[in-house]
Every structure is written in structure tokens, then in C-alpha cells.
TrEMBL record:
Residues 767-786 are annotated as: Disordered. The keyword Disulfide bond does not apply. This is AI-2E family transporter. Residues 632-754 form the GAF domain. It is found in: Membrane. The chain crosses the membrane at residues 22-41, 47-67, 74-95, 174-200, 239-261, 273-293, 300-318, 338-363. Gene3D superfamilies: 3.30.450.40. It comes from Paracoccus hibiscisoli.
Length: 786
């Protein structure tokens, strides 16, 4: 009987994903073992190379500075190398002279040392806590020794035989003394040669490293550039920190009266290059000498207090001031790296552990195939903020979730936290509802979010005046109702009274039970990815009972293209919002912009008039600059705006922007002060980024944005050296987009060039932005500059 089932032949079964992952992990373990073996057995060659590269990172800026001043490359390298060698020789002579002086003075302190040791011995001879235990142990040892001697067959100790012969020859003695010194001298010579060659042909070496890294040329270039800057700054800042520690140490020891204070200050500065262990070792010598010099204990205690005070000042004031707020590397990774490199290369590995780990971190940040280094070594949290909160809620740890949320609110505010993190937590919970979450997990998330919102409302209370004219309803699920609570709290903080209605208002019975008397606006929140059918029915029922009610639909999971007026009309609602910040903007009555302070505004207008930019003297240069900005940021429009008392003028643009032409300046497009794009930037003196103008109430109805068809807008102040903001350098594009802080730093630089063209003065480059990571929970980490 033939089978009735037929079809194409089965494809060969693919190996399970778990098996593939195991094979890949095993391959990585083999590769890692081979690399560690090469590092260990090749340390005689690799250690000089590593030291040479790090020293070249530190000396590279000096060489480049001399070359820019017209000094030939070879002469610049030779000059820097000779200067460094001369400084090291001078330091060695200083240390040698100090050691010789101390060695001549040490015999004079023998009596003081004997007296103190004898006094300590006498104090220890009195009855103590463990005297009985020690006496018992001594008695047992004596009895065991007597029993062994009396045992049958015991043999007396053999006589010691001494072989007397000719002593070693003078040549053998010299070889024995010189051999230990030859290896460090050979290593030093290799390092000097390598440093000279690296500094001499740095460009060729960089090209070869880029070729070895392979992959994306931009990423490889960024990796090498970032590594060079970070290592150079780290070594320079470490030198400054050590010197600022060693000089006060030497002066303090001199004031106390400790001999050899120059030696101990120099030693303290040098030993601090060794992480963790160095400061402790450098403190032993002056304390021991203070113990030997002073018959009493005053000098020891004062020297100890001096060392502790300098450590506190250096760790908590000097290092944060010079390094900044970023550690770059986590405390755990620094300790693990110090242990790893010390096990491989000994004390030299301990000294090199931090720079080498920084190199690995930079490579991991810029090369995707080595991104695990960034995860293992970096101080940036491995999970983003919403995921961390979500994981704490799943783990039934709402207290830690509250701590994380509190830290985030300190930086972004409550509404910003709800918009950036709170909704994302609920979005992840909504996505995992059927896929991964168990019943227990769902309950923990809902209860944890309710508890978190209760705590945040207590910490940030708001009681807007007047009756609640806005009602918020969760569309279907409990997460929808939690998002409605967030929106109500955000509105209250904005001064708008709102209240939450019961969740799940989706059926005819629940809609009929609603009490919306006195409510002017109803906001329905939903995380559903396909809510049209259910929401359309709900809106129809609500419209039937309250035809004049304004209905706003908050679709937290809707794609960007599905939030326009056409979809709002299809669903029967007045407006669709996609973010909590947009919802707060749309539901909050527009407040008139505060008028700028008269004296400051007068000074600003005076500076603008003094620049003469409205006379057109820099128009061609500003047009070229706008074109350069548009090309660099890959946007359709870039323009330079200046803000007058009652109008805004486009004084530079990459394309001919449509709009009104000024009668007094026919070549310039102008806008009224009420429609000015730079007004908020000038008044608040800060950069403004709007990823999507359709989603921002301040720009969605702006006539210039609508006429220029701009969806993305970003602007940064045109700030003079005196602090007056003349206008803004702006970017616009017809597609929504995001912009990173590093790109905003570049925008600030171009804006500074624009101000220089307008005022005929040198450009003042503002300080770059930098992301502030969360405060480390441990102070064990060694600081690394950004």
C-alpha cells in the first residue's frame, strides 16, 4: 500500500543553536588560551614592546608639537628623547646621592632603634591574653622532643662537615654582581630603541595597525585615535597627580624633620605608578625612618597623619579634578586586570595593567567583533536603564528598581524618566507577556510598577489647581493603566489637573459605566501593536455618549508612519501621540514665552549690531560654512540664523530657502519673532534637538518648518566670547533622525567658526559634551581620563 503523503525532499537538518554556541565558545577558549600562552612565554620580547608603545603614547604629543613648530621629525624625536633621558639620569643621581647620605647617617640611629625595640619587648613581657596558650604549646613541644630522643633506635645528630677550599675568583664575583643588572639594562636599551623608532615613523606604524585591525576603516581609525588620546592623557594626568602628591610629601617630611625628605617625596611620586601597592610601599620607608630617628612616637604619628591626609586629598580632590567624573574602567575590571597582568609579567605587568586594559576597552568599543571587552571592562552598565529596572522587577526587587529610577530622575526629571525609561519598561513587559513571562513574573512587574509610581508620586508631589478636565484611561491591559498613571503624574507636574479612570475601558459595558461629566479631554493609552479594531469601537461608543469630547490616543508602540492625521481620522480621534513628552505638550495649554531680561537683551542686540553681520559682510563665508555643515551631517538644510528684536534673519544657508525677503536686506530670508526658530535657543542659551518636528508641539505648526518640509531640527547657540548669543546654527532634514553628543560637539565647533566669521574674532571652541556614567559603587577603581 503506497503512502498518500508526498512532497519535496526534506532539507538536511541544521545543527541546533545550542550546539553551535558551544562550539563557538570552545573555539574562543582555545584562542584565548593560545594568546595567554604567547603572552607568558613571549614576555621577554613583549614587555619591552609594551613599555615602548606606552612611552611613545606619552611622548607623541610633544614630538607633534615640535614638528608643527617647524622642527624636523628626526630632530624633534631626538630632542625629546635626550630630554627624557637627561631627566631620568638626573633623577637617578638625586636618588643615589640621597641614599648615600642616608646610609652614612643610619648607624647613628641604632641606639634609638634598640631602645624602642627593648621598650616594646618589655611591654609585651607582661601578662597577656595568649600567655596560657603559648605556654601550653611550648610544654607540648618539649615533651615531644624528649620522647623522640628517648625512643629506641634514635640516632644522634650527625656531625657537620665543612669543606674548605679556594674561594671564587674575582672574575666570577664580578660576573655574579653584574649578571642581575644586565637584564634590566638590556631591556632599557631595547625600550629606548623601540621608542625612537615608533616616534620616528608613527604614521607608517598606524597604517600597519589599521591594516591588521581590518574591517571598517572609520572604526579602526577611531579606535587608534581614541586609544592614543586616552593613553596619552592618562599617563600625563598620572604624572601630574604623582608630582602633586610627591612635592607636598617631601615638604611635609622636611617640616616634620624626617631625614632624606627629597628621596621619600621622589619615591612616593614614582611608586604611585604602581596601582594599589605602590602608595603603601612608599609609605613604609619614611615611617620606618621616623621610628628610628625620634626617641618618642610624635614623629611617627605626624608622618602617618601627613600620608593619610595626602592620600585623601589626592584620591578625592586632585584625581577627580584632573581625570573628570568618568572612570572608564570598572573597579572590578581594574583589580582583575592587575591580577591577570601581574600573574603573567610580574611587577612590570602590575604597572602596565591599567594602560593595557584601557587599550582593550577602546578596541572593544570600536570593533564589533571584540565588543565583549567593552562589556567586561567598561564602567558603563551592561544593561540599559529600562532593562535594569525591568530585571529588578522580575527579580522581585522593587527597592533597587526605585534606587535606579531615583538616580535617573536626578538627571532627566520625572517626565523625562517616564518618557525614556518608564514606558520602555512597560513596553518590554508587554512584548514578553506571551513570549517569555510566567504568571509570577507578570504579577511582579505590575505590582512593582504600581509600588514604584506610588513612591515617585510621594517624592515628587503635584497638586494642580482647579478641577480635572483631562481623564486618562488604559486601553486594555494593566500596563496600559500604569502608563495612564504616568501620564497623569506628568501632567500634574506640568500644572495640569488630570485623573485616571478604571483600566480596561474597552467593552460597551465599561464605556457605559464611565463618568466623564466635566471632562473636556479623554486620553486613551495603549501598548497594543494592532489596536485599530478595539479602539475604533471604543471611540465610537464614547463619541456616541459625549460628541463634544476631545479624544487623544496615546499609542506607545505605534510605528512612526502610523501617527498622522489620516490615521487619527480613520480611528475617529482628534489626535495621536507617540510619547509621553508629546502627550504632555499636546495636553498642556501653551504658555507665553517669558520675555528676556531687558539689560541682557539690550547687550545682546548691541553685540549683534556691532558684528555688522546684517550688512552682509560674511554672507559668502557663512553660506560656505552652512554647505559644509549640511554635507558633514548629511542633512538637506543647514542655515545660520540671527535674532533681532522683532525678526529673525537667515544670514547663511546651503540652499535657497523659500520665504519672505527682507526689504532692508533683500538677499536674506526673514521670519517674525513669534515664528523664529532660534528664539528658544537664544532665550535658553542651550542646544535644542527635535528628532521629529511632527511630534513636538513647538514646531509642528511652525510655518517655516512646514514650508521647508523639515521633520528633523537641531540648533546650537552662536555664542560670542563675551557670552552673548547672537542666533543659532541650525540643521533640518525631511526625515526624522537622531543625533549623538559627539556630533553635537562638531556642531558647536562649526558654530564657533560662524561666530568668528560674523565678529571677525578668533573662534572660541566650547568644552565638549560628555556622557556622565552612573556613580561607581566602589572607590577601588583607578581613575582613567575620558
Amino acid at each position: 500500500m503506497t503512502s498518500q503523503l508526498s512532497g519535496p525532499p526534506l532539507a538536511p537538518a541544521e545543527p541546533p543553536q545550542d550546539r553551535t554556541d558551544i562550539v563557538r565558545m570552545a573555539a574562543w577558549m582555545v584562542v584565548g588560551s593560545v594568546i595567554i600562552g604567547l603572552l607568558y612565554f613571549g614576555q621577554d620580547v613583549l614587555i619591552p614592546l609594551a613599555i615602548a608603545f606606552l612611552v611613545s603614547f606619552a611622548l607623541g604629543p610633544l614630538v607633534r608639537s615640535l614638528v608643527r613648530r617647524g622642527v624636523p621629525q628626526v630632530a624633534a624625536v631626538a630632542l625629546v628623547m635626550l630630554t627624557v633621558i637627561a631627566m631620568l639620569l638626573g633623577l637617578g643621581l638625586l636618588i643615589t646621592s640621597q641614599v648615600s647620605v642616608l646610609s652614612a647617617e643610619l648607624p647613628a640611629y641604632q641606639s634609638t632603634i634598640r631602645t624602642k625595640i627593648a621598650a616594646l619587648g618589655q611591654s609585651m613581657e607582661g601578662p597577656g591574653l595568649f600567655d596560657g596558650v603559648l605556654q601550653t604549646v611550648a610544654t607540648v613541644q618539649d615533651q615531644m622532643a624528649t620522647a623522640l630522643q628517648d625512643a629506641p633506635g634514635s640516632v644522634a645528630d650527625p656531625l657537620a662537615v665543612t669543606v674548605v677550599g679556594d674561594g671564587p675568583s674575582p672574575f666570577s664575583t664580578a660576573i655574579a654582581w653584574l649578571t642581575p643588572a644586565l637584564a634590566p639594562l638590556a631591556t632599557l636599551g631595547i625600550v629606548v630603541v623601540f621608542v625612537f623608532l615608533v616616534l620616528l615613523d608613527r604614521g607608517d606604524l598606524r597604517d600597519r595597525l589599521i591594516r591588521l585591525l581590518g574591517g571598517n576603516l572609520h572604526r579602526s581609525t577611531d579606535a587608534l585615535e581614541e586609544a592614543g588620546k586616552r593613553i596619552s592623557k592618562y599617563l600625563l594626568m598620572q604624572l601630574v597627580v604623582n608630582v602633586t602628591y610627591g612635592i607636598p610629601m617631601a615638604i611635609g617630611l622636611w617640616a616634620i624633620g624626617v631625614p632624606g625628605w627629597v628621596l621619600w617625596g621622589t619615591l612616593a611620586a614614582i611608586m604611585r605608578f604602581i596601582p594599589y601597592v605602590g602608595p603603601m610601599l612608599s609609605a613604609v620607608f619614611p615611617l620606618a625612618l621616623a621610628f628610628a630617628v625620634d626617641p618618642g612616637w610624635d614623629m611617627v604619628l605626624i608622618a602617618l597623619a601627613l600620608i593619610l591626609f595626602l592620600e585623601l586629598v589626592s584620591n578625592n580632590i586632585v584625581e577627580p579634578l584632573l581625570y573628570g567624573t568618568s572612570t572608564g574602567l570598572s573597579a572590578l575590571s581594574l583589580i582583575a586586570a592587575a591580577t591577570f597582568w601581574t600573574a603573567l609579567w610580574g611587577p612590570v605587568g602590575l604597572i602596565l595593567s591599567t594602560p593595557l586594559t584601557v587599550c582593550l576597552l577602546v578596541v572593544g568599543r570600536n570593533l564589533p567583533q571584540l565588543a565583549f571587552f567593552d562589556t567586561l571592562l567598561g564602567s558603563t552598565p551592561a544593561l540599559d536603564l529600562p532593562t535594569r529596572i525591568y530585571q529588578r522587577l522580575i527579580a522581585d526587587d522593587p527597592d533597587e528598581a526605585y534606587d535606579i529610577a531615583t538616580d535617573a530622575i536626578a538627571a532627566t526629571g520625572v517626565t523625562g524618566f517616564y518618557n525614556q525609561s518608564g514606558l520602555e519598561v512597560l513596553r518590554q513587559a508587554s512584548d514578553d507577556f506571551h513570549a517569555n513571562a510566567r504568571v509570577e513574573h507578570r504579577l511582579r512587574v505590575v505590582e512593582g510598577m504600581d509600588s514604584l509610581l506610588d513612591d515617585l508620586q510621594e517624592d515628587h508631589p503635584a497638586d494642580p489647581p482647579g478641577p480635572a478636565r483631562i481623564a486618562c484611561i488604559g486601553g486594555k491591559w494593566q500596563v496600559d493603566a500604569i502608563s495612564a498613571r504616568m501620564l497623569v503624574h506628568g501632567l500634574a507636574l506640568a500644572g495640569v489637573a488630570a485623573e485616571v479612570r478604571p483600566a480596561g475601558a474597552i467593552t460597551a459595558r465599561q464605556v457605559a459605566a464611565l463618568d466623564l461629566e466635566g471632562v473636556g479631554t479623554l486620553c486613551i493609552t495603549s501598548f497594543s501593536r494592532d489596536p485599530d479594531t478595539a479602539l475604533r469601537a471604543t471611540v465610537r461608543r464614547v463619541r456616541r455618549r459625549w460628541p463634544d469630547l476631545r479624544i487623544v490616543l496615546a499609542l506607545w508602540n505605534a510605528p512612526d508612519g502610523q501617527a498622522g492625521a489620516d490615521r487619527a481620522a480613520a480611528l475617529g480621534v482628534d489626535q495621536i501621540v507617540l510619547s509621553l513628552e508629546e502627550a504632555v505638550q499636546r495636553l498642556t495649554p501653551a504658555a507665553p514665552a517669558p520675555a528676556p531680561a531687558a539689560p541682557a537683551e539690550a547687550a545682546r542686540l548691541s553685540a549683534l549690531s556691532a558684528s555688522g553681520v546684517l550688512d552682509g559682510h560674511a554672507r559668502a563665508d557663512l553660506d560656505d560654512l552652512a554647505m559644509r555643515a549640511a554635507d558633514a551631517f548629511d542633512v538637506g538644510m543647514a542655515f545660520v540664523l540671527v535674532l533681532e528684536a522683532d525678526a529673525e534673519y537667515v544670514v547663511g544657508q546651503n540652499i535657497d530657502l523659500p520665504g519672505r525677503r527682507s526689504a532692508t536686506h533683500p538677499a536674506m530670508t526673514w521670519l517674525t519673532r513669534g515664528d523664529a526658530l532660534s528664539a528658544a535657543i537664544v532665550d535658553e542659551d542651550r542646544t535644542l534637538v527635535v528628532p521629529d518636528t511632527d511630534r513636538d508641539a513647538r514646531f509642528s505648526d511652525n510655518p517655516a518648518i512646514r514650508q521647508w518640509q523639515g521633520r528633523f531640527f537641531a540648533g546650537t547657540p552662536l555664542r560670542t566670547a563675551d557670552g552673548h548669543v547672537l542666533g543659532a546654527l541650525c540643521l533640518a532634514d525631511r526625515d526624522p533622525r537622531q543625533i549623538a553628543d559627539a556630533e553635537l560637539d562638531l556642531l558647536d565647533r562649526i558654530a564657533a567658526e560662524a561666530v568668528a566669521l560674523m565678529t571677525r574674532q578668533d573662534a572660541v571652541i566650547p568644552e565638549p559634551r560628555r556622557e556622565v556614567p552612573p556613580a561607581p559603587r566602589s572607590m577601588l577603581g583607578q581613575r582613567v581620563p575620558d
